[in-house]
Write a structure and sequence with these properties.
By secondary structure, this protein is an alpha+beta fold. It contains 5 helices and 11 strands; from the N terminus they run βββααββββββαβααβ.
Length: about 190
Amino acid sequence: MEDLKLECKCGEVTGVVSNVKPGCGNRLVCYCEDCRNFAKHFNKADDILNEFGGTEIYQIDPSRMRIYHGIENISCLRFSDKGLYRWYASCCQTPIGNTVGLNLPFVGLIHSFVASDQCIDSKIGPVIGSVYTEHAIGTPSDELKAGKSKTRLLFTILRKLFIWKIFGKGSPNPFFHKDGKPIVEHSLVSRNKI
């Protein structure tokens, strides 16, 4: 197993996902409007979104992820009081990832926070599918249909979440204290019309 290096665009926030190998997480593309809003909020659409408005995400259990440097630069926003916590590096507005809370053990790590000087495909494997494809922009292509079917992908995601929950992989969590409170107060941001 190898480590996946993490780094914001300016290098002020760095970290690692330890002991990765293909299949230990879920690498997928999300086409939901909130992921698109997150990229556009920081004017990062060209860096984050693919041609159909999708964001590549690597879902991992939080216990694998560590922030080694720049924790003071991590900020958070939400699009609603019950929406995902969306984490970013305030130093350069690099989107880091999204979480639900301490009770649901996953981090949806956004590809913009994965250091580019490593062979990502060999470390974590290929994209296994896409979610929220009904929100994709433009004409659907074979890219949107590639990978597992919606049912199989949902089963894969839920199975891993269940295993991570049973084995206590939600802690330690780089974004939440042990009492469940986020490490920083989030900002509530209005959604843009897409």
